[in-house]
Amino acid sequence: MPATTPAPATTAAAATARSPRMAVTGSTLVITAPAPAAAPARPRPRTRSRGPYGRLFALPGTRAFTAGNLLARLPMGMFGVSAVMMIAGQRGSYALAGAVTATGLAATALVAPWTARLVDRHGQARIALPATLIAVLGSLCLIVCVRTGAPAWTLFASYAATATTPNIGGLSRARWTHLLRGSPAAHHTAMSFEQAADELSFMIGPVLAALLCTSVFPEAGTFAGAALLLTGMLVFVSQRSTEPPVTAAPRLGSPLRALAPLLLLFLALGVVFGSMEVSSIAHLEQRGLGAASGLVLALQAAGSCAAGLLYGTLRPRSPLTCVTVLAALMTLPWAAANSGSLAAFCAALLLAGMATAPTMVTAMSRVHALTPEGRLNEGMTLAVTAILAGIAAGSAGAGLVVDHAGPATAYLLPAAAAAAALGVAAKGRAKIIFDPAAG
Questions:
Q1: For labeling, which of 53, 179, 404, 435 is most exposed (least CB within 10 Å)?
Q2: Distance of alpha carbon 42 from alpha carbon 190, whole angstroms
C-alpha cells in the first residue's frame, strides 16, 4: 500500500509542538524552549485479590499462632495409637492397653472442663503451658513405666496425668473469635479452617504414630507426640498479641445449662465417629485388609478436611441442613459394605466424611453464640467432652454389634446415631436454639 501523507493541519501542529516558541515583551524578543512531551501513563500493576483464607492469615500474628496450634494438635491423633502399640508390644496385652487408654479418656472428660475454666479466668499463657508440662511429664512417665516393667497401676496413673492436656483447638478458636468480632463471614472461614485442622491431625497422627512405633522403637510414637505437644504449645502461647484478654466482669450463667441441647447433638456426633471407626476396622479385617485400615480410614478424614476448607469459602448453612445431609450420607457405608465392592466402600467413606466438617463447624458456631461471656474455652471444651463420651459409647456399641451380628450390620449404628442427631437438631430448631440469627 502507498504511504499515507499526514494532513497539513496535523503536520503543522506537530511542528509547532517541537519548535521553539517566540514572544515579544516590550522591546525584547523572548525564545522559550518547547514543552516536554508528556510521558505515557504507565498501567497500574494489578493487585491479586486475596481469597477468604488469604485475608484471614494476613492478620498480624495469625500465622505464628496457627503454626504452633498445628504442631500441638498433631499429637491428639497420636497418643491413643502410640499408647496401645507401646503397651501391647511391651506387655503383650491388648486388654491392658485398652483399659489404660480408656482410663485416660475418662480422666480427660473430667479434667478438661476445669482446665478450660482456669484458662478463661487467668489467660491462655498462664494456664495452658503448666498444664501441658504436666501432660508431657505424664507421657514420659508412661514410657519409663512400660520400659522398666513397673506395676500396671503406674501405667494407669501416668496416662491419667495426660488429661491436663489443654484443648488446643478450643484455645485457637477462642483467638479467632477475639480477633474477628464483628466479622461473621471471616469468623465462619476461621472455624472451617480449625475443623479442617482437626481432621488433618486425626488423619496424619495415627499413621505417623504407627510408623514410629513399628519402624523406630515401640515408645517412639509417645515420645514424638510429647515433644510436638510441648514445642507447639511454646510457640502458641508466645504469641501474646493475639491472646484473648481476661475480662474482670463477673461470669454469670452456666455453660452447661446454656449448651445442654447442643451437647446432646455433640454426643450423637461422637457416637457416629466412634462407631464408624470400629465398624470400618472390623469390616476391613474381615476382608483380609486389616493392614490397610489406616489408609482406608484416612479417606473419611480427607473428605471431611476438604469439605471443611471448601465450606469456609461458602455461605454458612443452618445446623439442621448440615445434619440432614449427614444423616443421608451416613447410610452409604452400610449399603457399600453389603454390596461387597471395595471401591464403593471407599467412595462411601469419602462422601460420608464430607458431611462431618460442615456439621461440626455450624454446631461449634452455636457454641460461640450461646456460651456466656468470659467462658468460651469452657463451653468449647464441654462440647469436645460430649464428643469424646459419644466416641467411647459408639466404639463400645459397635464392638458389641460386630461380635454378634457382623461388621456390615454394625454400620447401622452410625446411621442411627446420625438420625438421632437430626432429631435433636430439628427439636432445637423448633426452640430457635439452632437458628443462626438467634445468636
A1: 404
A2: 38
Query: What's the Rg (C-alpha) of the chain?
Result: 30
The answer to whether 257 touches 377, Cβ cutoff 8 Å, is: no
| 31 φ/ψ angles, rounded to the nearest 5 degrees | -110, 120
Cα 398 from Cα 401, distance rounded (Å): 5
- Comparing CA positions, the residue from 301, 304, 276 lying closest to residue 360 is 304
Structure-model confidence comparison of residues 53 and 4, the more confident one: 53
How far is 26 from 28, CA to CA, in rounded Å?
6
- The whole-angstrom separation of Cα 166 and Cα 162 is 10
Q: How many CB atoms lie within 10 A of CB 149?
A: 8
Nearest to 259 by CA among 115, 124, 363: 363
pTM (global) more than 0.85: no
> Among all chains, which residue has been given the C-alpha cell 451416613?
330
What distance in Å separates the CA atoms of residue 172 and residue 242, rounded to the nearest whole number?
10
Q: 91: exposed, middle or buried (C-beta count within 10 Å: 0-12, 13-18, 19+)?
A: middle
- Rounded to whole angstroms, how far apart are CA atoms 398 and 412? 9
Neighbour tally for 38: CB within 10 Å: 6
Contacts of 249 (CB under 8 A, 6+ apart): 373, 374
Write out pLDDT tens, residues 290-349.
667 767 777 778 888 888 888 888 888 888 889 999 999 999 999 999 888 888 998 998
Say how far apart CA 75 and CA 85 lie, in whole Å: 15
